[in-house]
Amino acid sequence: MIKNQKVALITGITGQDGSYLAEFLLNKGYIVHGIKRRSSSLNTERIDHIYQDPHLSNPSLILHYGDLTDSTNLIRIIKYVKPDEIYNLGAQSHVSVSFETPEYTANCDALGTLRILEAIRLLKLEKITKFYQASTSELYGLVQETPQTEKTPFYPRSPYGVAKLYSYWITVNYRESYGIFACNGILFNHESPRRGETFVTRKITRGLSRIDQGLENCIYLGNLDALRDWGHAVDYVEMQWKMLQQKDPKDYVISTGRQESVRRFIHLAALALGWKTNAENNAIVWEGSGLDEVGRRVDTNEIIIRIDPKYFRPSEVETLLGDSSKAYEELNWKPKISLEELIKEMINADIELAKKEAFLFRKGFNIPKSIENPPSIFEK
């Protein structure tokens, strides 16, 4: 270990943001400790390329088994690591799933944050360890103003959003009560090729890539007209780090300031695949309405998108659009990667995976079909 080398602890290191943040901090010269949940199967594919054998002397990436629902485990790890910075990225992060598992979501996403903050306090690390809390634009839910800023009132519309609301305010409370350097990053939607397959953006890029290679005929989606502010995870993890480098702890909205619909995201993904377009530059045309609406591919005339009511939430968040003026002005941060570049990167990664699967299929191997969520208890 190099003298004065910073030490960071990341919860959720095997997730999309955790893996990019680990890369970022390693490149900054940090020693990075990560907490991962125990699983009977390997779940480290996002960080396999930076994995270091623990038998080596002085590794700069160290993994620990742990869980945000286990306070004694968290206290033990934090006591052992004595981190300069903690990035709490771990969570049950799927909004729709939170309706199915509300108690677990609250235990992990809300009380998990409390457990870490309380560990910092109990271990007398208030003046040593800085804390970053991964907050979310889902706090705004039924939006009270557009665009949303740090001062916009919260109105969460899911168990996930409500759990994150607790995390937000308990972070503020421990900052004000105990002097902990604690920040909330209110991150709007951010994607990448490492996004989980059941999130809508990855479901689109993966599904259309598989259709392109003949592995799939159709994908099923929910609310095509939901409006979101999408950025790239690589840009956003830089901002997470920047928050903990400032003189005083503050909370920041992190967004692009650009809003598009799910329908528009599909259009851009089809263009990134190079599919033939009509005179209006559309590779997919829409027919019907409501649950009967379908998306038809222009060059083959095949229906490749259908609506499934199980992908609608019991209470929808129709529109989210962030205003990151505070971050722009105080931390000199602006996103570098455009939505078109993000989608192209996701398509490139997913088409490569689809080509490999198509090759194996032609050679007689069984290829698993696209993963779908189980039936919802809210289905009528």
Automatic annotation (TrEMBL):
EC number(s) from the headed UniProt entry: 4.2.1.47
SUPFAM superfamilies per the UniProt record, alphabetical: NAD(P)-binding Rossmann-fold domains
UniProt keyword annotations, A-Z: Isomerase, Lyase, NADP
Its top-level enzyme class, in one word, is: lyase
* Names of required cofactors: NADP(+)
Keyword Lyase in annotation: yes
Q: Which family does it belong to?
A: Belongs to the NAD(P)-dependent epimerase/dehydratase family. GDP-mannose 4,6-dehydratase subfamily.
Query: What is this enzyme's catalytic activity, as reactions?
Result: GDP-alpha-D-mannose = GDP-4-dehydro-alpha-D-rhamnose + H2O
Gene symbol of the encoding locus: gmd
One MF term in the entry's GO annotations: GDP-mannose 4,6-dehydratase activity
Cite a single Pfam family from the UniProt record.
Answer: GDP_Man_Dehyd
* Free-text function comment from the UniProt entry: Catalyzes the conversion of GDP-D-mannose to GDP-4-dehydro-6-deoxy-D-mannose.
List membrane-spanning regions: none
A Gene Ontology biological process annotation?
'de novo' GDP-L-fucose biosynthetic process
Q: Which InterPro entries does UniProt cross-reference here?
A: GDP_Man_deHydtase, NAD(P)-bd_dom, NAD(P)-bd_dom_sf
Residue ranges of every copy of the NAD(P)-binding domain listed in the record? 9-346
Protein name, as recorded:
GDP-mannose 4,6-dehydratase
